[in-house]
Amino acid sequence: MILGKIIGKLSTTEFTFSVTGDAKKHQYVQVMHPGNYFVLAQIAEITKDVSNTLAYCHIIGYKEDKHIVGIKTPFNPETEVLKAEDSFLQDVLGITKDSGAFIGKLDGRDNISIYLDFNKMLTKHVAVLAKTGAGKSYVSGVLVEEILNKNIPILIIDPHGEYSSLKYPNPEDIEKLSALNLSPKGFLNHICEYSPDLETNTGAMPLKLNASGLTSTEIMKLLPIKLSLPQQNLLYSALKNMGTNKTNFDELLLALEYEDNSAKWTLMNVIEYMKKLNLFSEAYTSYIELIQPGKASIINLRGVDPEVQEVIVHKLVSDLFNERKRSNIPPFFLLIEEAHNFCPERNFGEAKSSGILRTIAAEGRKFGLGLCVITQRPSRIEKSVLSQCNTQIILKVSNPGDIKAIATSAEGMNAMTENEIPNIPIGNAMITGVIDIPIFVNVRPRITKHGGEAVKIFDDEVEIQEPMKQNDFVNEIRESKELLPLINQRYTKRDIELMVDNPENLEILLIPCALVNCYNNEEFNILIDLASGKIIRNIETLDSVEFIHSFPNISSQESKVLGIAITLGKFKASELFSKSGLQFGEIYDIINVFETKNLLIKEGDSFQISNSLKIFSKLKDCASYEKVEYGDIKFDRKIEKKYDSNQVKTILEKFIKVNSSKEGFLVFYNLKT
């Protein structure tokens, strides 16, 4: 298609043509060069007056030896300007599907799909840059979907809890996805969420950091304040007196108590604060568990203080980087949301996590550790980190300082593309690093549910109600639904219907449960099914273990002794005698009864509890992180309760401290067969 003819003054970088066809801004065009080959160009701007429409073009070049090469002599005047053919455009830009992440369609070209090279992402890093509300979390969600589809391990630092929705399919854009040969999909079985704050993030697993072998340098980096020189000297002195340069918080507090220095009290308070956070443990979250092919591990930091977030990112990422350098874990992708808080430009202060992120940006590519930083303030993220991100996905940005930071760090950026950054429409992105020049892309819809929407304070429409007539409140109460104490799933019935083959067979069951808060060195909850008497370990699959039926029907005195036996695990008869307060003859008789009922197993002169009772000594392994909330729900069946929380409490109190118990209904989606 002919769009016009070249006019005016010509150069080797730009030209102008008089528009006679359907030309649009950002459109790709091709022009025959006097050397008898086509050259690719792009319309940068279009102007119009009473008599003429002019298009101003930026010359991109032509393909030579797999590289885009600029022209060395200008075009001839009056040369026809043609709409670039799809095949020519793909050839020059080098857009291929091989090993790529499908991000969207080239702007204005629905036949040309844009793919990001996974190898480049793992070795040359990525940045997603946008102002608030421009869609950076949405685009990063698209990126994570593609990474999961390729079975690449990914660790997501999520300060606001926006990425949990990746578990569930997108029910909103079915038609748009179908047009791209895609369909809604959730990654429920590929995502595991971890958090240090389980009260705020009830569906997450506990995150524990490695507390073993902390050096003095590491301890200083882990403390949420900057230590003064006297405090640093005191710390080194305490470690020296301990005779080791590696320790944990408990040992360090004990050593500081013996120091004769008034500066120790502030230091001890800070260390005590870190200890009480319950972040550090000898039984820390396994690195191999976090980094697995085909799995995304989300570190949900919602509700955690910013200073503590920095400490978590520093320690976790440092340990994972060291494990990767030793090849103990596979190559993986690290995604950092709100990256300006974790590696700020030095004018805005130094975060605890700045150093390790600088190191990964510079050295991660050598070890197969790819970095993706996401920020709404590009000018506030450290320049040395941003400049290492060769692929940049740029959405709408308005702040002049942020635009300048992007233009300085992005590859192939020129004045034309820099001026376009504030005008990028929602749903579009400018991507640099895919080829030698920035390209504009219509970002594809997500196949998973988006979790980064802003909270609506006011509805768009408010229904104006008539004044309530006298006694109308009686009808209102009658019409209201029953409020029930519910333990909700993280996904809705609609989400499940998209995942199953026969959604018409899906029913909602309400299972009576007791959420019991226990204490054994630390607090934890267990969820008991009051219909079956089992402990529920996974509310989504209803994976359970026997509980009430495992505890035998015995006398109160025997129950007391059995509780002590469960607490001890393995013991001699004399130990049971000393802790029970009973006569030795009574203990001897009870032990014989327990042996007869296969409750105890004798090994030489010792005894241990049978396998059927071991669940009572490992209750922490069945810990639940759900909570009971009141709400109304349409359900198909309510399961009948056979036990109550008092029965559960009576059994538990024989061998563990019970703080409280709360009954409710677990919402369970059952597929009828």
Walk me through this protein's architecture.
This protein is of the alpha/beta class. The protein is 28% helix and 27% strand. The chain folds into 4 domains: 2-93, Thrombin, subunit H, CATH 2.40.10; 100-206 and 285-443, 3-Layer(aba) Sandwich (Rossmann fold); 214-281; 484-673, Winged helix-like DNA-binding domain superfamily/Winged helix DNA-binding domain (Arc Repressor Mutant, subunit A, Orthogonal Bundle). The protein has a 12-stranded mixed β-sheet. Strands 24, 25, 26, 27, 28, 32, 33 and 34 form an 8-stranded mixed β-sheet that branches. Strands 1-2-5-4-3-7 form a 6-stranded antiparallel barrel. A hairpin with a 6-residue loop joins strand 1 and strand 2 (14-19). The longest helix is centred in the middle third of the chain and has 20 residues, at 306-325. It is elongated, with a radius of gyration of 32 Å. The model is unreliable at 455-481 (pLDDT under 50).
